[in-house]
Structure formats: structure tokens, C-alpha cells
């Protein structure tokens, strides 16, 4: 799987998004066409996230286990792998050992 | 003091720099001319950082107390304020309450 090592030609917000007492930290990135993504890290934890817009989570480094909405089994995702979450939904993500680095694509 | 809300026309590394078990998380930003900076967050903690190149730390949100190399008194920095650290030096930084958001300028 190919890894997206950097996002080019963007503006990055200098203030981070800090969730769950810092177990998840991200920075928002805006492309020239107005598209927004975020780059972030989840530290070892099990967290429950709600989505507004649909999201595609792309793994940059580390791995996570995910329980998607309506799923009964956890799935594991490693570097270069992606998973999709519908809008207005909730999913569980579990990170063990090393931090999980991701790009979040919206919409 | 004016706040730098975003950095424009940059490339952002998608893998974060994670220090001190995640008490400090940053992403590296590269400008078209090759200049590198980082945007990061320090969660409540007292941390000791070593510099390679000289650094200018610019506060985006939150505040911190800093003991600069050779100083005997802590100084406090809030949004829009900056402090400089020489290269190959060590400084102490203490964050209490809310996360401290910063831009680190090198060189």
C-alpha cells in the first residue's frame, strides 16, 4: 500500500483540535479548492467518535482496530489502508502500543 | 498581539512528531523555499526540551511558563507572544490547565 507522506499546496491551521484530553490531536488542512482534511494522531486508547460529514480515514503509520457502525466484528487497519465511516454515525477505534497517525478526508 | 491563525502555501507531513508519550505532538510544515516550521500542541505537563537549531516559539493559543537556558526566573507567554531558545540548549516548559498551541520557527 502506498503511504501519503505529505499534503502539498495547503494551508494548515496553527491551532490544533484536541479531543479526549489529548488522546487525539489533529490539525486542519485546507486545499486551494477549499477542500478540508485533517492530519492527526491517536495515542493508545479506545475512543468513540461521532461523525458529522462522512469520513474516510487513511492510515499513515501505526495501526488501529475499528468497530464500524452496525458491524459486529472489529477490523484492523495498517499503513496505507483506509476505512470509511458514514455521516451522522458513531464508531469505536482502539489503538494499542504505538501512536496511530492518520489523514481524515471529509465528505 | 496578532495571532498567526494559519500557514499558507505549505506542505504538511502527515506523520506527526510525538514526544514525551504524546504530551507534545507536532506536524512538520515545509514552505516553498524549503523553510521548515512545526505546528504543535503541548498538553498540561512540565517538559525539558533540547534544541538542535535555534528556535523561536510563537504562541497560538493557551499559555506556558518557560525557564530559558541560564535564566533563574520563569517567564509566561500567551497568545501572540514569542520566545527564543538558542541552539544546542535545553529549556523547561510548563503548561497547566488548557493545551498550549504553538508554531516553532527554526534557525
Automatic annotation (TrEMBL), chains A, B:
Q: Which reaction does it catalyse?
A: thymidine + phosphate = 2-deoxy-alpha-D-ribose 1-phosphate + thymine; inosine + phosphate = alpha-D-ribose 1-phosphate + hypoxanthine; xanthosine + phosphate = alpha-D-ribose 1-phosphate + xanthine; cytidine + phosphate = cytosine + alpha-D-ribose 1-phosphate
Return the InterPro entries for the record: Ppnp (IPR009664), RmlC-like_jellyroll (IPR014710), RmlC_Cupin_sf (IPR011051)
Q: What class of enzyme is it?
A: transferase
| Record keywords, A-Z | Glycosyltransferase, Transferase
Gene3D superfamilies of this UniProt entry?
Jelly Rolls
Q: Which domain of life is it from?
A: Bacteria
Question: Under which EC number(s) is this enzyme classified?
Answer: 2.4.2.1, 2.4.2.2
Q: Which Pfam families match?
A: Ppnp (PF06865)
Q: PANTHER family attached here?
A: PYRIMIDINE/PURINE NUCLEOSIDE PHOSPHORYLASE, PYRIMIDINE_PURINE NUCLEOSIDE PHOSPHORYLASE
- Cited function: Catalyzes the phosphorolysis of diverse nucleosides, yielding D-ribose 1-phosphate and the respective free bases. Can use uridine, adenosine, guanosine, cytidine, thymidine, inosine and xanthosine as substrates. Also catalyzes the reverse reactions.
Extract the HAMAP family matched here: Nucleos_phosphorylase_PpnP
The record's similarity note reads:
Belongs to the nucleoside phosphorylase PpnP family.
Name-wise, this protein is: Pyrimidine/purine nucleoside phosphorylase
Ranked from the top, the taxonomy reads:
Bacteria, Pseudomonadati, Pseudomonadota, Betaproteobacteria, Burkholderiales
Amino acid at each position: 500500500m502506498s503511504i501519503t507522506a505529505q499534503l502539498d499546496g495547503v494551508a494548515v491551521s496553527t491551532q490544533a483540535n484536541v479531543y479526549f484530553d489529548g488522546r487525539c490531536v489533529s490539525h486542519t488542512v485546507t486545499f486551494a479548492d477549499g477542500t478540508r482534511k485533517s492530519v492527526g494522531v491517536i495515542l493508545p486508547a479506545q475512543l468513540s467518535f461521532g461523525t458529522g460529514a462522512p469520513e474516510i480515514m487513511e492510515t499513515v503509520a501505526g495501526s488501529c482496530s475499528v468497530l464500524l457502525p452496525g458491524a459486529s466484528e472489529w477490523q484492523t487497519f495498517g499503513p496505507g489502508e483506509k476505512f470509511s465511516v458514514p455521516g451522522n454515525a458513531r464508531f469505536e477505534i482502539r489503538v494499542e502500543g504505538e501512536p496511530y497517525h492518520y489523514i481524515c478526508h471529509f465528505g
